[in-house]
Every structure is written in C-alpha cells, then in structure tokens.
Specification:
This protein is α/β, with parallel strands linked by helices. It is about 25% helix and about 20% strand. The strands form three sheets. Strands 1-2-3-6-7-8 form a six-stranded mixed beta sheet, covered by helices on one side. A six-stranded mixed beta sheet has the order 9-10-11-12-13-14. Strands 4-5 form a two-stranded antiparallel ribbon. Helix 4 packs across helix 6. The longest helix has 12 residues. The two termini are about 35 Å apart.
Length: about 300
C-alpha cells in the first residue's frame, strides 16, 4: 500500500500557467507564475532541431524568453520532468538568457549510466547528475517566489520521471495524456508498465479539482490541440486508466500497445543532449560537435 503523502496540494494557490506549443514535436512548454510575485518557472522547454540538416535553432525558446521579459517576470526554475526522448531541451539557453536553476529527478543518474553506455560516451561525460543545478528526490519541496512546490517521483515511462506540483497545477510530464489520449509508453530502457500504473494512481489520488497539464498532445481523432484537464476528468474518462481499470489490465494493454510503436523520430539526438541537461556533447578535435547514431542497439 502506498504511504500517505507528507505534504498537501494547495487548491487555494492558483498560479498563472501559459502554454507554448511546439508543433514539430507536439510538446508543451509552460511558464508558471507565482500568483503573489513576478517569480516564475519554465517546465519542459524545447530547442528546435532540423535533424536531417544537423541544424539547431532557438525560435521556440525565444518566444518563451520574449514573454517572460514582456511580463517583467523573474525566472527562478527551469524544470525538466524527465529526460525527454522526443525533443531537445533548451534549458541551458534559457538559463544563459534569464538565469534560474535547472532541476530534474535524482534518478537522472540511472538514465545517464544507461545511455552513457548506449552512446559510448567517454569519461568527460559525468554520470552523477552534476550537469543539473538540483536533483529532486521524491517529496522534495522548493519555492517559486512565495509558492511552495513539490516534486513527486512518478517512474514507469522512464526511471527519472517526476511530477511537479505548483499550487493547484500539476505537471505530469509524459506520464499521462489528455483523457482521450491515454497514457505514455513504458518500453524505453528502464521503463515499466506496472510501475507506470502505480505512478499514475499516485497522481490520480490528488484532489479531483487539481489542474493537470500535459507535456504532449497528439490530437486524437483530429480534434483541436488541448493541454489542460483535471484529476477528476482523468479518473472518469482516461481511455487507458480510468477508475475500474485494474493494474493487470493496464499492463496487458500497455505492453501490447508498446510492441506496435516505432521509436520516436528524435530519440537519438534528444537523449544525447538531454542526458547532459540540454548541453551538446564535447566538440571533436576539429572543433565541430557531432551526435552519434548507434546501429542496431536500441
């Protein structure tokens, strides 16, 4: 049985949450403002990449930066819910432009160990999470201005997935999609469908009124893009994990579905960069940065 949480979600604290949607990767980034001050956090930023051309750009991140400057906000935290496999993080660029601390779950070290081997990274690649400013343990708290925030370890999609609770707003990363989209895959190295089910139950044990913000939306059945729902709506209508779906039923569905899925289009560049907190690998002897493509390994 899951232990009772030692903290309480504050439904009376309602941060302003502004989404930024990256159409190329179907990813939402968020600016989350403390309701009592100009302090803010950015959750799951995106760095643009034209993979075929080997070119990076900051067009999407620049929109976030422009908004923060226009609103005269102070960026205090740059949060990564996990090591993303479908887009590159713009965290270092945001930090360079606006300041703030970069944070991720402490199990990043597990991910770094696995993918350090996959990409045959040399000893210059630290596997201790030191590329990040803060490694969150389960239940850790931090502040955005006067707003108390909490980090919850919700593995299953990856070992390092964290759900971040900021006031009544809950940022679930890739754990959940909108109710008609279901749930995230659990077949990456270190993923586990049974663990994912239990993590989702932890999120769905929060108050029904809590606002849930998605990291991705793939617009099933051609509907318009959506990014916000509630715990109550997920309990009632999530197509994979609504109330009444048992753990065994979910695991059977998730594992069967995952077996049919292709690898994400940007998994190879994303993992190499994101395991380094958004930094590129060290330049080669000619001064050029290269990303690796392991053959027949993933």
């Amino acid at each position: 049985m899951q232990a009772r949480e030692t903290w309480k979600l504050d439904l009376g604290c309602k941060p302003e949450v502004v989404p930024f949607f990256d159409e190329d990767t179907n990813t939402f980034s968020y600016v989350v403002q403390d309701p009592g001050s100009p302090a803010c956090a950015v959750v799951d930023s995106v760095l643009d990449i034209d993979y075929a051309a080997g070119r990076l750009s900051t067009a999407g991140a620049d929109k976030i930066i422009a908004y923060i400057r226009q609103q005269k906000l102070q960026l205090e935290w740059i949060i990564e819910t996990h090591v993303h496999a479908d887009h590159l993080s713009a965290a270092p660029y945001l930090q360079e432009e606006l300041g703030g601390r970069i944070g991720i779950g402490e199990q990043i070290t597990t991910v770094q160990e696995v993918f350090g081997k996959v990409f045959n990274a040399d000893t210059r690649f630290a596997r201790d999470g030191s590329q990040f400013d803060r490694l969150f343990a389960d239940g850790d708290s931090y502040q955005v201005g006067g707003m108390l925030c909490h980090a919850l370890h919700t593995p299953g999609h990856t070992p390092a997935c964290m759900t971040h609770v900021m006031g009544d707003a809950v940022f679930v990363g890739d754990t959940l999609f909108m109710p008609d989209g279901g749930t995230a895959r659990a077949d990456f190295p270190g993923g586990d469908a049974r663990v994912l089910y239990r993590s989702i139950q932890r999120v769905l044990s929060l108050p029904g009124e809590a606002r849930l913000f998605m990291c991705h939306d793939y617009m099933p059945n051609g509907r318009e893009v959506e990014y916000e729902t509630t715990v109550a709506a997920q309990r009632a209508a999530n197509i994979h994990v609504h109330e009444g779906i048992s753990e065994d039923e979910f695991v059977a569905m998730r594992e069967a579905r995952d077996a049919t899925l292709d690898m994400p289009r940007l998994i190879l560049p994303s993992l190499q960069v994101n395991m380094r907190a958004g930094h590129l690998p060290e330049a080669d002897s000619n001064g050029t940065v290269y990303l690796r493509v392991p053959i027949n390994l993933l």
